[in-house]
Specification:
Number of helices: 3
Structural class: alpha+beta
Shape: globular
CATH class: Alpha Beta
Oligomer: single chain
Distance between the termini: 43 Å
CATH architecture: Roll
Helix content: 10-25%
Length: 149
Amino acid sequence: MTEIPRDTAPTAGWMEGREHLLPIRIYYEDTDFTGVVYHGNYLRYFERGRSDFLRVTGVAHSALLDQAAAFTVVKMTLDFRRPARIDDALLVRTTLDGARGPRLFFNQKIYRSSELLCVAGVEAACIDMTGRPRKPTVELTAALAPLIG
């Protein structure tokens, strides 16, 4: 099997201070018949932003599963400001604004250049494999502590 060269591997984005940035390209499959992004796809972009936020901070979902932990979204608010369109280059910006017990509170925004398109407030909970709330792992708590705003 051929290994993907590091400089061509898919990006997980990068951190600027305590904010994670993830570039997203809009493809035909993301849009409706008018070329506008289908509203449900914003949830996917925000999910990728949160997942890669964790990945870049050293917390892989596969490692959480090895410790019988996962995340579930328990609350999300969305504010659609402007539509994204086919071929747009977007930037998903994610910050961790708080943590309390098993819950993490994220603020996410999607931009096209400097234009704000959508804002999300996300409350996620750390759960065990039966779906019950559990404390985040020690590794997760240590990795995220300096990033909480």
